[in-house]
Design goal:
Distance between the termini: 11 Å
Structural class: alpha/beta
Number of strands: 13
């Protein structure tokens, strides 16, 4: 039985992607452990079919957090028996790289995104320089790995000559019946509330949309978005739920009529992304307004499930949403296509590739 250790810097509780990965591999017979860090607001871990370990951390952000987590993780991995070590993104790459070299163990890279091309990184030149130097040093040494879509895989190949295969972060396939009594004037946004998530255009667009918007998520931009909603006189149209537990999020999504998935082009990581909400709306059977970016378009060309837009101007957003609200024939076609697409883009199909990959490692 192969023992695999996955490494993250979060506190494990709400990491749905890693929960799926670890659960699938554990069910397939692997001995799996997920290692993260305990934060001040961490809640107790729930029982899983795989092992979980939280390491202590004094710092919670910034350079000191990175240094502390990397040092603690290195020494934990160094003295922990295993067959395969997996770095889940660049922030755990160094301890996995060094400990795997010393122990002569197989190392794998799980690329959730183009780390150095995220807006938070590229918008700060000094921070970008540091992370890019780490990436240039570490990434070529991870010859085995996988990422979330073809765009990301192509970029990693171009930059570092690594051939990462694709495991999409699609949801588990659950029974689905269309709710015929859903509120036909209810929009939903789920995800982080940060700059570049479309709110700069969406908030003023709501003045010309006859619908209510439910916002499920939190982030550094939360208070500013709420203030902008008041400033634009649309606060009465928007229900800010804050952080919502995954089980409650599914309920809100099922009740909605249209999903919103609008990332500004603030770097290659956004431009090539396939967000969780893209798949969540698909699986809920609700058409969405999404960006006309390569990976979204690739799926939408195969299964028309979204109205794609080229920019985030308020008029563009309002026109796209109103089109779905008012064109019943279009809406019904996209809704039926969602039900077809979810039969292809689901975790049951993706986990087969993941299991085959780890099974092939000698």
């Amino acid at each position: 039985m192969k023992h695999i250790i996955f490494t993250v810097t979060n506190d494990l509780t709400y990491d749905q992607r890693m929960n799926k990965i670890c659960s699938s591999l554990a069910k397939a017979g692997f001995d799996v452990e997920l290692v993260g860090f305990k934060k001040k607001k961490s809640v107790p871990l729930t029982q899983k079919i795989f092992g979980q370990k939280r390491l202590a951390s004094f710092f919670e952000k910034g350079p000191l957090f990175f240094a502390e987590t990397n040092i603690r993780l290195f020494f934990y991995l160094l003295f922990k028996k295993c067959d395969i070590l997996c770095a889940d993104d660049l922030d755990t790459a160094l301890p996995v790289l060094f400990s795997s070299k010393i122990k002569d163990k197989t190392r794998v890279f799980d690329a959730h995104e183009l780390f150095c091309e995220m807006h938070d990184i590229i918008s700060r030149p000094s921070i970008y320089k540091i992370w890019k130097s780490i990436e240039k040093f570490a990434q070529p040494k991870f010859r085995l790995g996988y990422t979330e879509n073809g765009g990301y895989a192509s970029e990693y190949k171009k930059m570092y000559g690594v051939d990462y295969f694709i495991v999409m972060n699609s949801p588990l396939l659950q029974p689905k019946e269309i709710n015929e009594n859903k509120n036909k004037k209810l929009l939903i946004y789920q995800g982080a509330i940060e700059r570049g998530r479309g709110f700069e255009g969406l908030i003023p667009a709501m003045r010309n949309i006859d619908a209510q918007l439910v916002v499920c998520g939190n982030g550094r931009y939360f208070d500013e978005v709420k203030m902008n909603a008041a400033k634009e006189n649309v606060a009465g149209k928007i229900d800010f739920k804050g952080f919502v537990k995954p089980e409650n999020l599914r309920t809100y999504t099922d009740e909605a009529y249209i999903g919103l998935n609008m990332n500004d082009n603030l770097g290659a990581s956004f431009y090539y992304s396939l967000t969780n909400r893209f798949f969540d709306y698909m699986h809920a059977g609700i058409p969405q307004v999404s960006m006309n970016y390569p990976e979204n378009k690739k799926i939408n060309d195969q299964y028309e499930i979204a109205v794609l837009i080229d920019d985030l101007q308020p008029e563009t957003i309002a026109n796209a949403i109103n089109r779905l609200l008012n064109d019943k024939e279009l809406y019904n076609r996209l809704q039926q296509n969602c039900l077809k697409a979810r039969e292809v883009y689901n975790w049951e199909n993706e986990e087969k590739k993941l299991i085959a990959f780890y099974s092939s490692i000698q």
